[in-house]
Amino acid sequence: MRLDKFLAHHGYGSRKEVKQFLKKTEVTVNGKRVQDGKQAIVPTSDIVRVQDEVILYQEYVYWMLHKPSGYISATEDQAKTVLDLLKPKDAGRAVFPVGRLDKDTEGLLLLTDDGQLAHELLSPKKHVNKVYEATIEGVVTGDDVHAFKKGIVLEDDYQCKPAKLEILQVNGVKTDIRITIQEGKYHQIKRMFLAVDKKVIYLKRIQMGSLQLDENLARGEYRPLTVEELEQLSKKRLEIQE
């Protein structure tokens, strides 16, 4: 791999920008300073340092983000996007959110540059569970649980796949629930509850496939997936392919 491609891949700018970066910044390969971006390196064995910091090769990155309310799940928008939450050193990676959470929805969001993984997690045909916790305006009943299990019909006559609805606690005229779905239609959970004359007033995703939201992540914080989390994703990918 060319050095300029390696550095661009790790967020140090476009190849054109890396050319100027190499002139102004001390970059070494195996202890020798290099200013020519065309130099070939072996990413998995050569030691590349930027101002004495070793840059480890990562073909893809996988970051778990605790999305706060007020951010759009997109890479570009006039409003604030989840990419605005990235630290400067990470902002150069061409990551994108896997799936969408509404602007006012919080919780688990995976950021990656692995397009194949994104497809496998998002396709309805893959049957990947997505688990949410929510507060509902209205008293959720056993009849609602049965209706969700059967498949809610939305206002446009689309029948949702069966969903698992659990009643966690009833607080007067509000109900805390947990719901598991395998789809991701536009405003789906909100529309499902509207279909039974109730309103979602708070929504948070806590799990997607094998990934569970890290409770130690504050809103707006993110971290790389752990080895165990990556192994679970890899295992799921093999199951999907089979």
Automatic annotation (TrEMBL):
Enzyme Commission (EC) number: 5.4.99.-
Any one Gene Ontology BP term: enzyme-directed rRNA pseudouridine synthesis
Keywords: Isomerase, Lyase, RNA-binding
GO MF assignments: lyase activity; RNA binding; rRNA pseudouridine synthase activity
Gene Ontology CC annotations of this record: cytosol
Cross-referenced Pfam families: PseudoU_synth_2 (PF00849), S4 (PF01479)
SUPFAM superfamilies for this protein: Alpha-L RNA-binding motif, Pseudouridine synthase
RNA-binding S4 domain span: 1-59
SMART domains per record: S4 (SM00363)
Keyword NAD assigned: no
Root EC class: isomerase
PANTHER family associated with the record: PSEUDOURIDINE SYNTHASE, PSEUDOURIDINE SYNTHASE FAMILY PROTEIN-RELATED
Family membership noted in the UniProt record: Belongs to the pseudouridine synthase RsuA family.
Protein name: Pseudouridine synthase
Organism field: Listeria grayi DSM 20601
